[in-house]
Amino acid sequence: MKNIIIIGANQGIGKGLAQVLSKQTNTNLIVTSRNYSNKLTRSDSLWKIQCDISSEESMQNFVTQVSAQFKNIDGIINCAGLLHTKHYFPEKTLSKINPMQMFENYQINAIGHLILLQKMERLIAASKKPIVTSISARIGSIKDNQLGGWYSYRMSKAALNMGYKTLEIEWRRKYPHIRLLLIHPGTTNTTLSKPFQKRLKIGMLQSVEQTSGFIIDQINKKLNGQLIPLFVDFKGIQIEW
Predict the structure, then answer these.
(1) How many whole angstroms separate alpha carbon 142 and alpha carbon 84?
(2) Contact 140/164 with Cβ under 8 angstroms?
(3) 238 neighbors 181 (Cβ within 8 angstroms)
(4) Strand residue runs (E) in 8-44
């Protein structure tokens, strides 16, 4: 049995991935949400538990309970991300940035992803062929930034990318069997992109089902030994840092 974790599986891309992966045989699927119970529950091969990556206490509780049930984790797909809330939207100008918005973006889009891997390192390393994936964004590419704006989101995604690049170097020495992947999912019809969909050209908006399929395809290619770069888009095309 493979043991797969999806962080942020109650909505958007995470929910779509969970729907696809839950149909696979010989797979224990552990799905998380900030709104789930803090006790690990099971229905057949589907497991649910709270994991809030803005809370170290929540992440530690998650890892403790998962460790009690599983000896290893074969895959993690971290879909947690923040772009806007009811209190703020992406900042278009320097005058609009504020510490709270920047901190929350960094916490959820970058810091939490790395702290969770820190806590799960032993479980991941214990797998024979593990892969760790985080949903990043093209907007986190410094090279690609030609429009400006969206300070907190851009900076936090760039921080996530740097964190993964640094971790890849470390784990290549310690655990050469672990694969890492950062993927830009494309603009998907979710609540995260909803306020910005009107400006999209026809054909640019993907369904959750389409995006989920693209992501799983890239993960499988990397697992099967294809030379997929660390930071790619949903088609597998490398994105410059």
Answers:
(1) 21
(2) no
(3) no
(4) 27-33, 41-43
Task: Give the global pTM.
Answer: 0.93
Cβ–Cβ < 8 Å for 194, 214:
no
Of 76, 120, 112, the C-alpha closest to 219 is 76
Does residue 96 have a pLDDT over 90?
yes
pLDDT digit string, tens, across residues 166-215:
999 999 999 999 999 999 998 888 877 777 666 767 777 888 899 999 99
Q: How far apart are CA 3 and CA 5, in angstroms?
A: 7
Nearest to 2 by CA among 38, 19, 21, 27: 27
Residues 6+ apart with CB under 8 A from 167: 114, 117, 180
Both tokens of 219, joined, read: 């993960």
Query: Tokens standing for 50?
Result: 């709270």
Distance of CA 28 to the CA centre of its chain: 19
In a 3-state reduction of DSSP, which class is residue 184? Answer: strand
Close Cβ partners of 241 (under 8 Å, ≥ 6 residues apart) = 141, 142, 143, 161, 165, 231
Instruction: Name the token pair of 157.
Output: 């995604």
The two three-digit tokens of residue 39, written as one number:
């006790």
Q: How far apart are CA 223 and CA 219, in angstroms?
A: 6
What residue ranges define each of the domains in the chain, with the CATH number in brackets?
Answer: 2-233 (3.40.50.720)
Q: Quote the CA–CA distance of 79 and 68 in Å, as a whole number.
A: 24
* Eight-state DSSP code of residue 31: E
